[in-house]
């Protein structure tokens, strides 16, 4: 190696990032490069776990992996290329681990149990790598997200094909059946929550509960519940602001005003929140700048900084408003059904979906862009998910005389639904989302009321009028 590429010895003699011997060592140059790549991949996994993809710098990667920056650029074009190589390696290892534990001759529920035991064991023993797989890609660039989509789609196809107990009876993959996507989404959310909380070691204890929950859903989707496919258009279009947001863009009269100060500040805050969401939807989080927010919101920079300290605070403010309103409209529709819990869940889900469809830029910020933001944004998201999951509590009592519902079901269902919503919005198919509402209702209710009743209630929701979405307020 050239002098400026000399590798540094790790302090303290750590073996995790120990480089191969330097100087005239007679080692195969390809072996040296493989070792350097492996150390950089480990460093990427470790640093993303600590502070997220956006905060990881190449200088930090090189320092932790004990390679020079010129060596880094000899091996990888940029940070994103290193990320995708690490992601591919982790995904391949996870696939090998699960495949080796999977016996296709076993009945479906046993296959699920063995696969989940392998997955939860992997999460416990290699928590950082698993965290990269279930969380890390969301903060990365377009190439990494596309790689994640392809890997997830391959996994979904493989599971969909393997759901039938009989090779001869295996159906063709139904693009309108979201069951596998929702189940995997629930497992992903359960895993991610435990990893973030530092409870990875407890994951294996959840394998049987997750199996019991996943096995509640039959291998064939009941008739009449197919959802529209969420195929990404060749040229994605920017999410359009809602009618409410367009009305809010109007500037209040300048100069002296008789309007109450509280009203003026409320209007300014609403416009800043809407402008932040619109800019993030158009340009991504990296393209968000305070002057652009102020210009679009029709406020001065001084006014902006009197309300939010930074663009980061404005993003969190927009996320909190969107999440709070989404929860609010869903809860209002839920409570309007009184003691009829299954129809309350149905009404709440439909109101949530109608709200998201009516506020596309806020839906994108809250469900998609949150992952690329910061730990605080993830905490806001997670708190909202827990709040949604709490409304499944009465279902356990309802099901008590019929079946024992796994305790993990409510949390897993909330996570699975959130992942399906994310799927439609990420693929610029939010207009198709209302068509998925009946199947999501079926998915939410099946563990508690059984397949037939859940399907009937879902079909009833498809036939009924849509729930009105409440106006958004700051």
Short description, anyone?
With about 475 residues, this protein is mainly alpha-helical. The protein has three domains: about 1-75, Arc Repressor Mutant, subunit A; about 105-220, Orthogonal Bundle (Tetracycline Repressor, domain 2); about 245-250 and about 260-465, Tetracycline Repressor, domain 2.
Summary keywords:
Tetracycline Repressor, domain 2; Arc Repressor Mutant, subunit A; mainly alpha; disordered N terminus; 474 residues
Describe the structure.
The relative contact order is 0.09. The chain is mainly α and 474 residues long. It has 21 helices and no strands. The chain folds into three domains: 1-76, Homeodomain-like (Arc Repressor Mutant, subunit A); 105-221, Tetracycline Repressor, domain 2; 243-250 and 259-463, Tetracycline Repressor, domain 2, CATH 1.10.357. Helix 14 crosses helix 16 (360-367). 62% of the residues lie in helices and 0% in strands.
């Amino acid at each position: 190696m050239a002098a400026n590429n000399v590798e540094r010895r790790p302090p303290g003699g750590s073996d995790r990032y120990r480089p191969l011997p330097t100087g005239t060592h007679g080692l195969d140059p390809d072996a040296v490069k493989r070792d350097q790549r492996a150390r950089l991949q480990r460093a990427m996994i470790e640093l993303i776990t600590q502070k997220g993809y956006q905060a990881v710098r190449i200088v930090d990667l090189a320092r932790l992996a004990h390679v020079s920056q010129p060596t880094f650029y000899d091996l990888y074009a940029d940070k994103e290329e290193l990320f995708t190589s690490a992601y591919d390696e982790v995904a391949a290892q996870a696939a090998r681990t699960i495949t080796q534990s999977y016996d296709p001759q076993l009945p479906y529920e046993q296959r699920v149990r063995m696969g989940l035991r392998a997955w939860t064991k992997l999460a416990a023993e290699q928590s950082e790598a698993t965290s990269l797989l279930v969380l890390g890609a969301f903060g990365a660039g377009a190439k990494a997200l596309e790689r994640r989509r392809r890997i997830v789609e391959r996994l979904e196809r493989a599971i969909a094909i393997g759901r039938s107990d009989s090779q001869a009876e295996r159906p063709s993959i139904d693009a309108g059946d979201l069951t596998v996507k929702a189940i995997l989404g629930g497992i992903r959310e359960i895993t991610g929550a435990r990893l973030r909380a530092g409870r990875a070691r407890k994951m294996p204890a959840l394998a049987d509960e997750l199996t019991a929950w996943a096995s509640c859903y039959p291998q064939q989707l009941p008739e009449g519940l197919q959802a529209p496919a969420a195929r990404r258009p060749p040229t994605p279009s920017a999410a359009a602001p809602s009618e409410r947001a367009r009305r809010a863009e109007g500037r209040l009269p300048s100069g002296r005003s008789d309007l109450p100060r509280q009203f003026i500040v409320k209007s300014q805050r609403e416009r800043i929140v809407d402008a932040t969401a619109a800019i993030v939807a158009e340009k991504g989080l990296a393209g968000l700048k305070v002057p652009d927010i102020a210009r679009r919101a029709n406020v001065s920079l001084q006014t902006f900084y009197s309300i939010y300290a930074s663009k980061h605070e404005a993003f969190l403010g927009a996320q909190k408003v969107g999440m709070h309103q989404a929860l609010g409209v869903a809860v209002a529709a839920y409570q309007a059904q009184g003691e009829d819990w299954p129809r309350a869940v149905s009404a709440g889900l439909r109101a949530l979906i109608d709200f998201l469809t009516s506020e596309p830029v806020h839906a994108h910020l809250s469900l998609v862009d949150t992952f690329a933001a910061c730990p605080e944004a993830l905490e806001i998201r997670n708190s909202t998910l827990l709040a949604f999951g709490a409304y499944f509590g009465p279902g356990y009592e309802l099901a008590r005389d019929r079946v024992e519902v796994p305790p993990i079901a409510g949390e897993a269902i909330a996570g699975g639904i959130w992942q399906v919503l994310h799927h439609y919005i990420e693929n610029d198919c939010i207009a198709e989302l209302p068509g998925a509402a009946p199947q999501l209702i079926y998915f939410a209710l099946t563990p508690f009321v059984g397949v037939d009743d859940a399907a009937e209630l879902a079909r009833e929701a498809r036939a009924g009028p849509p729930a009105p979405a409440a106006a958004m307020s700051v």
